[in-house]
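sry for the spam today, last one i promise. struct tokens for design, 287 residues
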């Protein structure tokens, strides 16, 4: 099939590569020249603007925020054929996604919200979990394509359920980083060794997959980003916005946002979001 990829960053690029490996024709558009060159180097054809959209059977996007999703959706609505399927994998607000759905419905463009759970390494290894909502018939038709990105796909409903589910998942990921920051700092201040704490935590009742995954790099106090402080703060703001809309009190999440702001203010904006550990350490007199 002819797939047009919009957004060839840390998540979009490997998804495009998996499509190529499966035999699909992939064109690509991105605002970053370096990303376009990298995509072209692995076999994607550069086709910016309307050119790529008009020729596509499937449009796949991986975008950073609400505003850019809306800009792309307007381009899709103007230039895509009515039988085109638009699959967006971005983490955005349910409200903006609903606006996009209304816009595309006027052009009879099928719209799948296919949010992904996992980091860039998991995207590279085709190990993402896909949380999908939109028309069930379109989901069923696109399932062979979605399976190229990871082993697990969940259809959650015909509206914005996948957008909300992604925020639910990321709330727990953000809170896990805050929990680790407090628990590890408590232990360190009391004299426990960093390596000993990680060994116990990853072999205890609290050894969730995310705790085990973070232990691989944090055991070495490596804060190279899989997902940055800035990116997590953006997602936590989305979570708080949805909680306000639904009138759900989430005070711990609001405090976690303050930790993320503190991390950014102390020079860790582009570090891994687990850098909130260093914030709590500093407050405890360890940093």
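last one done:
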């Amino acid at each position: 099939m002819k797939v047009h990829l919009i957004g060839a960053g840390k998540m979009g690029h490997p998804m495009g590569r998996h499509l190529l490996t499966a035999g699909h024709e992939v064109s690509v558009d991105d605002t970053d020249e370096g990303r376009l060159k990298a995509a072209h180097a692995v076999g994607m054809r550069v086709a910016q603007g309307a050119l790529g959209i008009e020729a596509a059977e499937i449009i796949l996007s991986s975008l950073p925020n609400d505003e850019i999703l809306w800009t792309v959706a307007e381009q899709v609505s103007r230039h895509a054929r009515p039988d085109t399927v638009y699959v967006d994998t971005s983490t955005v607000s349910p409200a903006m996604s609903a606006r996009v759905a209304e816009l595309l419905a006027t052009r009879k463009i099928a719209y799948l919200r296919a949010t992904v759970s996992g980091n860039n390494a998991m995207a590279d290894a085709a190990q993402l979990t896909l949380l999908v909502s939109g028309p069930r018939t379109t989901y069923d038709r696109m399932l062979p394509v979605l399976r190229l990105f990871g082993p697990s796909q969940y259809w959650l409903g015909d509206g914005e359920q996948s957008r909300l589910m992604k925020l639910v998942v990321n709330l727990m990921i953000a809170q896990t980083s805050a929990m680790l920051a407090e628990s590890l700092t408590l232990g360190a201040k009391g004299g426990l060794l960093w390596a000993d704490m990680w060994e116990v935590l990853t072999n205890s009742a609290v050894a969730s997959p995310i705790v085990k995954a973070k232990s691989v790099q944090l055991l070495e106090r490596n804060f190279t980003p899989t997902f940055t402080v800035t990116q997590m703060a953006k997602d936590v703001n989305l979570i708080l916005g949805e909680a306000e809309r639904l009138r759900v009190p989430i005070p711990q999440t609001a405090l976690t946002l303050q930790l993320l702001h503190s991390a950014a203010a102390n020079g860790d904006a582009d570090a891994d979001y687990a850098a909130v550990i260093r914030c709590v350490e500093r407050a405890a007199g360890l940093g």
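The longest strand covers residues 110-117. ok im logging off now
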